[in-house]
Amino acid sequence: MEPGNQTHIPEFILLGLSEEAELQPLLFGLFLSMYLVTFTGNLLIILAIATDSHLHTPMYFFLSNLSFSDICFTSTTVPKMLMNIQMQTKVITYEDCIAQMYFFLLFFALSNFLLTVMAYDRFVAICHPLHYTVIMNQRFCGLLLLGSWLVTLVDALVHALMILRLSFCTELEISHFFCELNQVIQLACSDTFLNVLVLYLATGLLAVIPFTGILFSYMKIVSSILKISSAGGKYKAFSTCGSHLSVVSLFYGTTLGVYLSSATNENSRASAIASVMYTVATPMLNPFIYSLRNKDIKQALRKLVS
User: Fold this and answer.
1) C-alpha angle 88/90/94, rounded to 5°?
2) Is there a smaller number of Cβ atoms within 10 Å at the N or the C end of the chain?
3) DSSP class per residue in 183-233
4) Looking at residues 43-58, what average pLDDT do you find?
């Protein structure tokens, strides 16, 4: 069969993190534990915010949505990986691969936009405290969330539709534990110029614009904090955005680390291992960062557990 005539692809092969049989039970236990911690931690954050009226503020509204996004983001990749290990198979169907890519891109971009919106929330709270309740009203917060969802839905849909136009060869092995967009594009036999162009344009826009927004917000925040005369006032102002800054640093630090690893290392398996940091580790650590550094979340969690 000619590669260009192959219009239906029955399945892809996910090579995973390791092909060594003796490592599979260890990987299964490790990722199952990490997934359960991620799911439970983020769910507790959502429940704590929902049940405590003191946390019904814009900052915690966006935090609960970030926790929901983290649960969904991790759920797009880890359960399939665990199922493949348990069933001793590496197969993912063409349809499932497209769906996995779509939801992975959706929730990854959504987390990025939510972090940007949260940075803007902290900017308004610290730089314009007297106008905070007027600016960050319920309607405006809803519009920010809706806008984030719409942009990320369209972005993920465009990438998924662009994949559907490609024809694939018989070599359908993906050196990853999930259907990573760039690797799927590289497996195509047909012309991928448009796919690569859209990939770079979308990545540039959806990475540079939010990151610039976060950077601008924190430049203004730092400038305002430095104008505060008392050390106690500076500490109090900075403590309100310390958790968010930690999560932003973790999110962009791990993502940039994986990108640089992929650019400098031709070993796809090494890149797959590095990507565990932002696909699994970051969503798992976020609840700990917010619960350990935020006394309001701590108190809400204690109430919820008791």
Assistant:
1) 140
2) C
3) HHHHTBSS--HHHHHHHHHHHHHHHHHHHHHHHHHHHHHHHHHHT--SHHH
4) 94
